[in-house]
Structure formats: structure tokens, C-alpha cells
Amino acid sequence: MEQGERTPSLFCMSEEYWEERYQSKDMPWEKGAPSPGLVDFLADHAELPRGTVCVPGCGTGHDALAWAGSGFRAYGYDLAPSAIRLSTERAAAQPSARFRLADFLHDRPPFAFDWMFEHTLFCAIQPSERDDYVRAVLRWLKPDGQYLAVNYLIPDEDGPPFGTTRDELWRRFSPHFELLKEWVPRSYPNRTGLELMLWWRRKPGIPAKA
Description:
This protein is an alpha/beta fold and 210 residues long. The chain is built from 6 helices and 7 strands. Strands 3-2-1-4-5-7-6 form a 7-stranded mixed beta sheet. The radius of gyration is 16 Å and the shape is globular.
């Protein structure tokens, strides 16, 4: 999502809020392509064992389709019915990508995933929900699962998008995950230098959070 777009609802993780954004075509986060950082990651790591990938807040499906195109079984989840409809239409020729309506923060997963990919969900939810987000990642990911995130490092506090910092991400995730690598990725032109990719592996013995 882009800066300066609309005054957010106090309940901006609600299905109604996001569905209205899709219905009105107020989707500044829609770039028509997957995250450039993800595209480069998949190209640079062709040796990764293929498995299942969860893409929460999948939007219109570009990132999940990139995973599927690289041989993973990708599952995209979103609150907005229109997002799932658009994703499913886009995936007609890619059977290894599936899209489902779900509340990632609060629903039980259908199964535990090998990978989770974060692109624009962490910055879209209210900052007060970020503890719920971490608990959801642990709930949806396998005990040895990996979490790859494109984080949006902006100062905005009146989003969405809501900004974050590397320090906050470390504080929230390092108790549960080992950081394998971090780097500044190739980005969309208006996000150059504002994104940070973090590649985490879940620490042994860290339980799922209810």
C-alpha cells in the first residue's frame, strides 16, 4: 500500500474495509507483478527443496503465482472475497497455486506450511495486531518452517500502510526464529531503499501459539 491513501478505518483488518477497497478499485498496492525481491530470491535459490508456501494477505495473487511458477505448492489467503476471485481467475493456468478466503490472524490453518511469505500484510494490519500476527505465523508454519518477508520500512503511523523498523522486527521475531540472511532487495520504483528482506528459520522447540 502507498503513503497518503485515505484515512483508514479503525477496523482496517475487517473483510468489509478491504472488500470495499477492491470494489472501488482503490488498490495502490496492486502493481500487476510479484515483488521484485521475491522474483530475485526464487531465481537465486533454484536449489531450495520444493514444498508448500502460505502467502497471507495475498491480494490478487502475484506473489503466490511466482512461488507456484518456481515449483512450490502455493496457497494464498485473503480477507476480501474480490481478492480471492481475482487471484483464482489469474491462477486458471497454474494449478499449483490455490486461493482461499481466510482470516490469517485468527483462523486455524488447514495444515502447517513449509514456507511463509510476507509482502504487504504486516504493514496493512493495525500495529496493535502485530502480536497476533507473530502468533499466527507460528500457528501456520511447520516446526522447521521458513519465513521470508519483504518488510516496508517507512515512518508512517497513520496507515495503512503502517511503518516498521528493523529493530521492531528483530524484537518480535528473533525469540522464535533464527535469522538466516537480510538484504535490501530490488523494489518497485517508488519503494526503492524502503524495503528490507529478512529470511528466517523457525528455532527448534518453539511451540505454535494459540
